[in-house]
Amino acid sequence: MDLIIGDLSLINGLFLLLALGLALGFEFVNGFHDTANAVATVIYTNTLKPTYAVVWSGIWNLIGVLTSTGAVAFGIISLLPVELVVNAGSGAGFAMVFALLISAIIWNLSTWYFGLPASSSHTLIGSILGVGLANSAVTGAAFGEGVNWEKAIEVFQSLLLSPPIGFMAAALILLAAKVLLKNPALYQSPEGETPPPIWIRGLLILTCTGVSFAHGSNDGQKGMGLIMLILIGILPSIYALDLSIDAPTFVNLSEASKAAVVTLDKHSPPSLSVQGKEIDVQLSSFLKSGNASDRTFSALAAKNHAIADKLIGKNSFQEVSKEDRRSLRSDFYLLAKTIDKLDRQSMFADAAEQKTLINYKKQIQRVTEFIPDYVKVAVALALGLGTIVGWKRIVVTVGEKIGKEHLTYAQGAAAELVAMSTIATADRFGLPVSTTHVLSSGIAGTMIANGSGIQTDTVRNLLLAWILTLPICMFLGALTFSADLFIVIHIFGLK
Question: Which residues cross the membrane (predicted)?
Fold first, then answer.
């Protein structure tokens, strides 16, 4: 157990390989589970042959992942309990990562087997909430304490609103098209295997491309966020901070830290000193409860002094010792989250102070919320390969079993146009949204608008799967976290 391979113990090396394999496995399953939605319309309108469609979609998923901002990735991480994120390399941190991935993969494979296009976003978020609830029970905290409910509600809103938006928007686009675009070819169903007219074919390929790209840029980030959490926990000397930042970025961070010292000291009563472990206790308590006090500001000021001391005299993170990089990242994480929450509560009445601290938070995010290109490539390949391998079950449901009649060209274009726009908008604001829900709802909306009707059995099964996803995945996440925690602590001896 004590054998060292580089900076890694043998057991940590094995855990690293297992965790990365699970994370890429999650994206692989996500590929043939979710991305299949993007190719359903082009396949069922004979726009592209299945082989060409899935390869084309896989390529654009890859491009979407590679060009993504990372906002969704770290938005997902912010749902996790603070103490587990800060201690990602501990036994509890390993248990958290394994629980999230195992429970999400189990549910995704189960719904895929039955051809139900359930949401990978709902799956992962349900698992996260389950882990948070289990962690609060294991640590003896108040039940549910440590779950970022504010962020969870924000995510729930995007996930709950996207299906009705998809349904109504696709229906309205189809109705508007019938008024504005009089070409009857657009509203016909494919005949045999004959492809549509070239201009319709181009439109459908364009919307398929847009959905695939948007899916990669949004859903692909979920795996990237978890992989970074794994790498930060196991290899903090390399991944805790962005070692590749240029000198001006480091200088901006250092200057922002100094400016924040002045601002925060104003809010910290001299007679109220918070030191040692109490600093982290106070900040973590505030992040859990949302109740700020003078001790919160004193702890925040003390935390920033500790950060400023570690940065003084340094010109880059390369000059920070390997031992200090993990603690510095933890300090950054707690400080940035605390500033963000205080700002949301309007605790900084002075506009200049608010500007100083928000700028500091942004500088912190620039050096902590980064994703190396090779992580993006690995996730992109897993997502693309998944699309190519397992697309058929979900495609059959979307293409044949939602409506009572065959999908027309206009219906396919309307549903995918809405899906593409909704996902791209959610990506812009760093919110995870379900490609599955938006596109499936969009197709159902076009069927109703077209007077085609829907197959009630399929829609009922879809709705049931969507409703059950969150509670089942919360249960799976809590159960697997508890089991994994026992294994990593009592069998492998990780604390």
Answer: 59-80, 92-115, 121-143, 155-178, 198-216, 223-241, 463-492
Could you tell me how many helices (H) and strands (E) the chain has, helices first?
20, 2
d(CA 120, CA 113): 14
What confidence tens digit (pLDDT) does each residue in 350-363 have? 888 889 999 999 99
Query: What are the residue ranges spanned by the domains of the chain?
Result: 4-156+191-237+372-400+468-491, 246-368
Q: How far is CA 53 from the centre of its chain?
A: 26
What is the 3 state secondary structure string of 316-354?
CHHHCCHHHHHHHHHHHHHHHHHHHHHHHCCCCCCHHHH
The Cα diameter of the chain in Å comes to 82
Whole-model pTM? Answer: 0.81
pLDDT recorded at residue 36: 67
Question: What are the φ/ψ torsions at residue 5 (nearest 5 degrees)?
Answer: -115, 100
Helix (H) or strand (E) holding 82: helix 82-86
C-alpha separations of 295 from 279, 357, 420 in Å: 9, 18, 47
The conformational region for residue 455 under phi > 0 = left, psi -120 to 50 = alpha, else beta, is: beta
Q: Which band of pLDDT confidence, cut at 50, 70 and 90, is reported for residue 34?
A: low
How much helix, strand and coil, in percent to the nearest 5, is found in the chain?
75, 0, 25
In DSSP terms, 65 is beta-bridged to none
Residue 259 and residue 304 in contact, taking contact as beta carbons nearer than 8 Å: no
> Are 436 and 395 within 8 A, CB to CB?
no
State the Cα–Cα distance between residues 15 and 13, nearest whole angstrom: 5
- pLDDT value at 410 more than 60: yes
Tokens 């390869």 found at: 55
